[in-house]
């Protein structure tokens, strides 16, 4: 029987070579029933507990829900259980024969809320996430429209400023006035067009969310328990894609607030003969006036298999992707929040940027004035990466804007810095003369990590919110510290694995 057809024939009657229109559908039996067969179905002792739905309601279910089988293909029994360990549905016989030792099995009925009528906690969360998506999209659309109005108002204000200034100068500046007004108009049109494109993308995502919401509503009203259970898993995939698309629009700066402002030439008040430009118009799109709220947790679902910690002996390393850098002496690498890969050539004042697929994007100088700098990288946020200078002057850390590749800030250390990491709003630096030093973002608080070696030049460090991991080629060790300097858990490894980064080989070993 086709699960997508609108007019269903009674399956029981068809087995008797009769053609009768079906009035109801039994998800457990996976059969359409005419009025007479439905009555027999309800009177049967074995089948009277089955919950049937009308054909009209059945046809309103999403097609993938209707295609979910209710019975075990191996034992032809009703699927009533779910095994988290194997991520599989089970019937009673499956549970006995193949899942005796599985501790993470649940009864599907227990997954549903009691007395709520085909409504599960996971489906509730699906609706919450969908509503979050819709609210965030609507907020973003409203904010983009506000920003367009704001830019147009700013254009008007700037025009008035220009005209007011124009009263104080002679006709020699007419063509300069025309130039700057044209620039304002071009920037306004360009940025408004970009915002309109973002609004269109957001409206497309909103339409997708509306479609999923309708399907969820149909599932809540008409689907069987198992269909809800498996449908939830399918909904999660669709919603995750919508959520990623919307979040990417947020993360890539498309919702940054765009403003225009005009700065006049300082010589405008001086000698007119020295004025070459009427002024300038700048765009600032670094600030967001909208924020996203995610109340639902699309990742917190029962379908995620329980993760089991692996010992290092069971971990196998395989090549995921090869990036052809065509450079020597690569001393630093990092992955940005957007997935772009950043590489440094040791002391070459050069940073290379590659796309997640390995495609070369750009190569830029870290600092136009500096000489042989550059050793290690640390990602600060979605827009900023920090670069250590290594054993060369000046003894700085450079904060680089990943979009423009301009240096946004320079931190003076007073010491050479090789390995570099960033956590808890602090820089963790492998210095030449003072071991591992920790600098806060404002550079007002500097301290040496207790118990760290004095000689940590040409070594590397990594960190998270609670731990600092230091690799030392002098004694082939990796030491884990907390931020107070205490060694935590383990502190020595013996050589088993060797990885090569550029011309530098680093040895990693099995934990003792």
List keywords for this structure.
512 residues, alpha+beta, Double Stranded RNA Binding Domain, Neuraminidase, 3 domains, four-stranded antiparallel beta sheet, flat, disordered N terminus, disordered C terminus
Task: Explain what this protein looks like in three dimensions.
This protein has about 500 residues and is an alpha+beta fold. The protein folds into three domains: about 1-60, Double Stranded RNA Binding Domain; about 130-290; about 310-510, TolB, C-terminal domain (Neuraminidase), CATH 2.120.10. It is built from nine helices and 25 strands. The chain has helices spanning about 10-15, 35-45, 55-60, 65, 90-100, 110, 120-165, 175-220, 225-250; strands at about 25, 30-35, 55, 80-85, 90, 105, 255-265, 280-290, 330-335, 340-345, 350-355, 360-365, 375-380, 385-390, 395-400, 405-410, 415-425, 425-430, 435-440, 445-450, 460-465, 465-470, 475-480, 495-500, 505-510. A hairpin with a 4-residue loop joins strand 13 (about 375-380) and strand 14 (about 385-390). Helix 7 packs antiparallel against helix 8. The longest helix is centred in the middle third of the chain and has 49 residues, at about 175-220.
């Amino acid at each position: 029987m086709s699960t997508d057809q609108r007019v269903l024939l009674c399956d029981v009657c068809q087995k008797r070579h009769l053609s009768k229109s079906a009035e109801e559908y039994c998800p457990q039996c996976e059969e359409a029933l005419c009025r007479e067969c439905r009555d027999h179905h309800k009177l049967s002792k074995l089948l009277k507990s089955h919950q049937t739905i009308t054909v009209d309601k059945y046809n309103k279910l999403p097609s993938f829900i209707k295609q979910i089988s209710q019975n075990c293909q191996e034992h032809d029994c009703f699927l009533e259980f779910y095994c988290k360990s194997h991520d599989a549905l089970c019937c009673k016989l499956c549970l006995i024969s193949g899942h005796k030792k599985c501790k993470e099995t649940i009864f599907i009925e227990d997954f549903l809320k009691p007395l709520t009528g085909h409504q599960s906690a996971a489906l509730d969360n699906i609706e919450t996430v969908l509503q979050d998506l819709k609210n965030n999209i609507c907020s973003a659309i409203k904010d983009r429209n506000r920003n367009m109005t704001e830019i147009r108002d700013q254009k008007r204000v700037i025009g008035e400023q220009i005209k007011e200034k124009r009263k104080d100068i002679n006709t020699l500046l007419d063509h300069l006035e025309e130039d700057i007004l044209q620039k304002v108009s071009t920037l306004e049109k360009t940025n408004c067009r970009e915002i309109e494109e973002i609004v269109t993308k957001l409206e497309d995502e909103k339409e997708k969310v509306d479609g999923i919401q309708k399907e969820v509503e149909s599932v809540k009203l008409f689907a069987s328990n198992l269909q809800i259970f498996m449908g939830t898993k399918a909904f999660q995939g669709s919603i995750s894609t919508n959520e990623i698309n919307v979040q990417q629009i947020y993360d890539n700066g498309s919702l940054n607030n765009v403003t225009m402002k005009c700065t006049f030439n300082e010589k405008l008040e001086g000698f007119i003969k020295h004025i070459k430009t009427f002024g300038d118009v700048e765009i600032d799109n670094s600030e967001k006036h909208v924020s996203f709220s995610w109340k639902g947790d699309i990742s917190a679902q029962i379908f995620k298999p329980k993760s089991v910690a692996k010992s290092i002996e069971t971990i196998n390393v395989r090549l995921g992707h090869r990036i052809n850098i065509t450079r020597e002496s690569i001393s630093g690498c990092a992955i940005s929040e957007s997935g772009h890969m950043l590489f440094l050539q040791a002391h070459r004042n050069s940073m290379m940027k590659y796309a997640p697929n390995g495609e070369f994007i750009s190569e830029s100088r870290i600092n136009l004035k500096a000489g042989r700098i550059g050793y290690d990288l640390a990602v600060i946020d979605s827009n900023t990466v920090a670069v250590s200078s290594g054993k060369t002057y000046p003894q700085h850390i450079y904060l680089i804007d990943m979009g423009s590749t301009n240096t946004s800030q320079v931190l003076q250390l007073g010491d050479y810095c090789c390995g570099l990491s960033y956590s808890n709003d602090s820089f963790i630096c492998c210095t030449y003369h003072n071991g591992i030093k920790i600098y806060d973002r404002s550079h007002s608080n500097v301290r040496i990590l207790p118990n760290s070696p004095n000689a940590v030049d040409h070594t590397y460090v990594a960190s998270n919110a609670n731990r600092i991991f230091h690799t030392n080629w002098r004694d082939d060790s990796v030491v884990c510290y907390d931020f107070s300097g205490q060694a935590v858990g383990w502190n020595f490894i013996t050589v088993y694995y060797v990885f090569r980064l550029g011309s530098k080989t680093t040895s990693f070993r099995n934990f003792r």
